[in-house]
Amino acid sequence: MTKHIIVIGGESAEDMQRMTHIDEHIVASSGKTRPTVLYISTASGDDRVKIFDFTAKYESAGCSVRTLTFFIPPFPSPDHMSSLFEQADIIYVAGGNTRAMLAIWREFGAVGLLTKAWENGKVLCGVSAGAICWFEYGHSDSGGAFALIAGLGFLPGALCPHFSSEAGRETSFVELVRLKGAQPAYAVDDGVALHFKDGRYHETIHNDATKNAYDVTTAPAYLTPLSQVSGG
């Protein structure tokens, strides 16, 4: 059974309200015409506007959308959480505060459910915090300054979102990758997603053809566009 993880570097305000090429790729990867999507909005503090926009967007593509929330009622029981994960074909994680999200997931037992979902071939995906969480390390500013923080470790190495759109991202990520020796290391612009199959990079998907994703090494010429790297 193929294990899918699709990570998005960032989205524009417009992308959050319309089905994009990346969204269509996520839906198609489920292998179902009308998949059930579980939206986990923990990192955004269960922002009601973002939940509404995501639900409307994916329902417009024929998906059934359910949400898992911890900050707004009804608060989930363990049985309800298990049911949400079991029914989902796609699990989509919102952006926001990565550290807070991971702490809440661990407190409420979501990590085990995510692990089981991944092992069972459900499509795992997300943007920003919802992208870096799947890796051993994620480049995050959720502690007030850029740092490589420990993720779930479903994918090896490190990921940096918002690579070209946020000041200081590139310098910080490259330096931290060198210090940590984190490999492989991926840097992803807004409007770009990476698809991993069975733990290996498979392909790059673009909403914005002017943006890119990179393989980051400790060599002097440290950025290689992933379009030049063979997928698995």
From TrEMBL:
Q: Which Pfam families match?
A: Peptidase_S51
Q: Which domain of life is it from?
A: Bacteria
- Family in the record: Belongs to the peptidase S51 family.
Q: What is this protein called?
A: Type 1 glutamine amidotransferase-like domain-containing protein
Query: What keywords were assigned to this record?
Result: Hydrolase, Protease, Serine protease
- Classification via SUPFAM superfamilies: Class I glutamine amidotransferase-like
